[in-house]
Structures are given as structure tokens and as C-alpha cells.
Design a protein that fits this description.
With 204 residues, the protein is an alpha/beta fold. It has 6 helices and 8 strands. The protein has an 8-stranded mixed beta sheet with strand order 3-2-1-4-5-6-7-8, sandwiched between helices. It is globular, with a radius of gyration of 17 Å. It binds glycinamide ribonucleotide.
Length: 204
């Protein structure tokens, strides 16, 4: 059984789907949900599901990224995770922190990587006139949003889409993708999960 820690910054809807999925014959179990924001709504939701939580307020470290990460490391090491899932965790991690968990930390990013690493992914896809957007789960490496791909879901961009509407449509599909990837990953299978949101294509 793989011990899984999940890092969040906000509502934690992906985290909830991961925790919900980790039952029965699943090869992983959630051992910790941690956040850089003590007010993150996801912390209470994790606690309500019986998962231990921790928070380290990054604002207390004022630009001292290593200090923040040293504080975050403590509850993480205590939880002895085999796998760390970043699920809407909005802090950039230093290469030292990433290397400490090399090969066992994964992230979900709301774009079809390698397109649009970083922020404002949906607005950038709409602005570029892309026909498709989506989300990618990848291994975390020191370079932002560029580790090996473990899964991807493609979602149509519809006429008149706003970034909010597109983000909501992609998020629904993130909730399918991330649990599917974690199931494989926790079982030691790195082959990519490739999904298409066909039900959103009118007429298909
Ligand atoms: C998700 O859309 C996730 O892909 C994105 O934040 C959202 C978190 O939602 N992550 C990033 O942008 C990471 N760079 P959630 O808190 O409801 O899971």
C-alpha cells in the first residue's frame, strides 16, 4: 500500500476526488493533506473525510522559499509519503525540494502541456484560438510544468467560451483524469492515461 500525501492551496476539488478514490482495492491511501494557506477550504474537507491535515502559511516566510519549504517538510516527513500529489498547489517548489521527492511527486496542470505552463492557461488557449484545451498530469521535475507526462484529457473550446467557463469544463475532466492516473502510478505503471471529453462534443 502506497502512502499518499496531497498538497493543496484552495478548494481542493481534485484532492477530494483523489481521497474518495483511495479505498478498497486502490494501491494507495491518503495519509496527509497539507496546504500553504491555513484558510484553504480543502483542509476542512479533508479533515471531514478523516485525513490528517497540516498547514504552513507561506506568507510568514516573506520570500524565504527555503524556510517555507523546511517548515512544510516537517509534517510531510512525519507522514512518510511514498507519493506526493500536487492538486492545485500554487507555490513554485525549489529544485532542492523537488529532487528530494524525485520520481514520487506528481502534479495536475490545467493545459495540454507542453502548451501553456504557468498561469492563466485557459485565457491563453482562448486567446490563441485553440480548438482544444485540457489538463495534464505529469511527474514534477525542477523545471516548471515540464516533467514526463502521465496523463492528459482533451476538452473542446466552445464558441464564446470565457476562461471561467472553460476552466469549469476542464475541472470536471480533471476529476476523471487525476484519480485514473494516481491508480496507475501507485501500482507502479507510468504509462500515460489518455482521455477525451467526447461527451462534450455535440453530436458524438
Ligand atoms: C485545478 O484546475 C488545477 O489544475 C489547477 O488549480 C485548480 C485547483 O482546483 N492547478 C494549477 O493551476 C497548478 N499550476 P482544486 O483546488 O479545486 O483542485
Amino acid at each position: 500500500m502506497k502512502r499518499v500525501a496531497i498538497l493543496i492551496s484552495g478548494g481542493g476539488s481534485n484532492m477530494i476526488r483523489l481521497v474518495e478514490d483511495m479505498q478498497g482495492d486502490h494501491p494507495g491511501r491518503a495519509v496527509l493533506v497539507a496546504s500553504n494557506d491555513p484558510a484553504a477550504a480543502g483542509l476542512g474537507k479533508a479533515a471531514a473525510m478523516g485525513v490528517p491535515t497540516a498547514s504552513v502559511d507561506h506568507r510568514a516566510f516573506k520570500g524565504d522559499r527555503e524556510g517555507f519549504e523546511a517548515a512544510l517538510l516537517q509534517p510531510l516527513l512525519d507522514a512518510r509519503p511514498d507519493i506526493i500529489c500536487l492538486a492545485g498547489f500554487m507555490r513554485i517548489l525549489t529544485p532542492g525540494f523537488v529532487q528530494r521527492f524525485a520520481g514520487r511527486m506528481i502534479n495536475i496542470h490545467p493545459s495540454l502541456l507542453p502548451k501553456y505552463p504557468g498561469l492563466h492557461t485557459h485565457a491563453r488557449a482562448i486567446e490563441a484560438g485553440d480548438a482544444e484545451a485540457g489538463a495534464t498530469v505529469h511527474e514534477v521535475t525542477p523545471d516548471l510544468d515540464s516533467g514526463p507526462m502521465l496523463g492528459q484529457v482533451r476538452v473542446p473550446v466552445l464558441p464564446g467560451d470565457t476562461s471561467e467557463a472553460l476552466a469549469a469544463r476542464v475541472l470536471v475532466q480533471e476529476h476523471r483524469l487525476y484519480p485514473a492516473v494516481l491508480r496507475r502510478y501507485a501500482a507502479g505503471d507510468r504509462s500515460p492515461v489518455l482521455l477525451t471529453a467526447t461527451e462534450l462534443h455535440p453530436g458524438i
